[in-house]
Amino acid sequence: MIYHEGNDDRKKNTALKLGRKNLAEVVDRVGDIPPHSILLDPFAEKAVSAEDVPFALTGSLAAFDCSWETAEAMLPAARRRMEPRALPYLVAANPVNFGKPTRLSTVEAIAAALYIYGRKEQADQSLGVVNWGPRFLEVNKEPLEAYAACESSADVVREMHTFVPD
Prior knowledge:
Elements: E1 2-4, H1 14-20, E2 26-27, E3 38-40, H2 53-58, E4 61-65, H3 68-81, E5 83-85, H4 106-116, H5 120-127, H6 133-139, H7 141-148, H8 153-160
Helix pairs in contact: 4-5, 7-8
């Protein structure tokens, strides 16, 4: 599920593309996201890992597609209802931020979490909504495989340090 603020180009927005292809439910109220969902939160203390799969199956995988100001204002309340998780170190393949660490588009973030959860086909399908999507998996193949092999958030964080440049 993706909360979409609606303040950008609707034709280029990757969250809306996922919604149009019925690969994600796009909502305009954070309250519509089920409690105990995994919330992709760049400031979370825990990393996305295999230990989150039960939450993702009973709740949802949730992302915010909005300005940083909106996200920062909404995150405290969302964190009380959901399970915040940060993505480990990955490099963007989207045209706006290509090659920049941690500057992922919404579709890249969702696909990364799915991949780490062992849902590789679903990650690939999600990335198929944009022509540059497969490039994300090429650029991040080694770290994604390593993170997917980890059992816990702590394992993902330890593994992540092998990919972060000095």
